Amino acid sequence: MASNKGKHDRISDFMFGTKNHRQHSNSDEHDKLAELMSKIDLDQLLNQVDSIMTVYDQFKPAIKQLSPIMDIILKRKK
């Protein structure tokens, strides 16, 4: 019975990794994520997203008008 448990542990380690490695890996990922987030200026990011959405809203009517023309061009290429 003990050998069966040993096989289960090896299979579990193979499939899911060892617990120590997984915990260490999670803390490393958390540290990297925290470091990355500390470098991001959220105000600047949100301002850029707002600018992109404003430009998109301004071009949206033109995109709707050009869409049928682009469909015709793409159909001809095929």
UniProtKB/TrEMBL annotation:
Residues covered by region (Disordered): 1-28
Protein name: Spore coat protein
Species this protein is from: Peribacillus deserti
Lineage, opening ranks: Bacteria, Bacillati, Bacillota, Bacilli, Bacillales
